[in-house]
Amino acid sequence: MTGAMPSTPHISLNHITQITDVIFYLQGEAAKGSERLRAYGSLSLEKPPLQRGTIKAHTTINDDFMKDLDIPLNSERDLTIPALNLEQNFTTTTPGDYPDIYKNQLQQSIDNTPSDTITCYTDGSKTDEGCGAGYIITTDNNNTIIHEESHRLPNCCTVFQAELSAITEACNHLITHTNKHIIIWTDSLSSIQALTTLNNNSRTVANCLNSLNHLGANNNLELRWIAAHTGNEKAGELTKLKHQELHQQQRPSTQQRALHQK
Predict the structure, then answer these.
(1) Residue 150 is inside which H or E element, if any?
(2) pTM given for the model
(3) Does the first or last residue of the chain, that is N or C, have fewer Cβ atoms within 10 Å of its Cβ?
(4) In this structure, are residues 132 and 237 in contact, taking their beta carbons and an 8 Å threshold?
(5) Are 173 and 120 in contact (CB under 8 A)?
(6) What's the rounded Cα separation, in Å, for the pair 185 and 208?
(7) What is the three-class DSSP state of 184?
């Protein structure tokens, strides 16, 4: 395929063809499987060899590999045992097959919101200065602010995690409300898709889904997609304000980040 001589070092061929060395590839695949089991709480440690020698347990080899990547072994991963999403105490609204029509009607939909409806705008962001999530809760058709809040997240978090964290925190704040019509707006279509998929193995998604179902059990709860800068500008501003603050909430790191940072 490359036209190289049989004696050409495979390391050089890997570099020329931009192919990952098979040893590193297998180490990475083994590490992903091991860390997935560790996150699930199902990783069983092997007994050390009874006799002296160079034999190493599989878990020891994996731990050494993770140390070489400078990845903390005990850091929380954004993984959970895969589960079926069979409960959904909220409805969702997305652009579907007609995004242009949906976007054109967004402002009218916001303006026609009943005055007694509780409306919440959420947003998450990630910049060179850090990662943050925020939300603002209003009523009386956005004329009265009930509450606004934001918090900083660890730099390892993704924008996807930040968006879900904003929704989760908003639900947790509204949990004392009952028999209300509540609309949560988010500009993260991927978050809505993840929350409505049948299978889930993300801890961040699971926590958000749990908060939505708790809030929706006693309220008429809607989760709607909103185009960026159509009403959630204030929530976006709040996420950036918190980038400079020292206090931050803890969130698990994604499996992809943990094993692809080298």
Answers:
(1) strand 144-153
(2) 0.75
(3) N
(4) no
(5) no
(6) 14
(7) strand
